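Hi everyone,

Forwarding the result from last night's run.
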Amino acid sequence: MAPQPAVVVRFLRQGDLPALLELEHAVWEPHQAASAGDMGARISRHPQLAIGAFCPRTGRALASLFAKPAHAEAIKRAGSWQECVNGSGPAKREPTSALFGISLSSTSAEAAKAIFGFFWPHALKNGWREMYLGSPVPGLRDWVRDNPGRHAEDYVFTYRKGQPRDPQLRYYFQKGFRKVIAVRRDYFPHAASLNYGVILGGKIPLSALSPLWRLLPLSWLQGMKKWLFVLH
């Protein structure tokens, strides 16, 4: 008998909303958490860009990822997370290979890892090449208190042993989001970040060979998961 998987990862459905709401409120403050309507709309608009990881025993949502197609230049110019999320996506006549990660919510590092392992083969098969996201910088408030007169950009670009000092930036750095696109004031409400946000970018692994991946069966790409976990 095959062992039960630690997590079950799949595309999200409308019936998952109660479990997703529980996850949102476990991870985010009430004013930061997405509503059922928000998440339901994201699933409806881009069902292949809404993924969840669930406990196989209890059915609880352990992690979720929502993304949307976007033009890289629009994301780079955006002044706020809300602008990135609510901005109109590319028209059908304007193809794009970029995604914006609306949110990654997780109570389990293993579940977050499993979501990326599930998603990257699908991303390659569909021709996505790069991904952007907005990150809080939760260490900023304490750093500013201890370093009066310094700027948020000074903190964002402070590294220790080759990795960002800020714990959230370091987390995304380890996931491959290593390019700082912009540091934005009033990007989203987050007290520990003094409402600052950092737009990060990364290349989807092996996406330079996109024409080849489109020709290969998805099952073949799924067999390459160990090569695809970290963005480049």
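Residues 109-125 form the longest helix (17 residues).

Cheers,
N.
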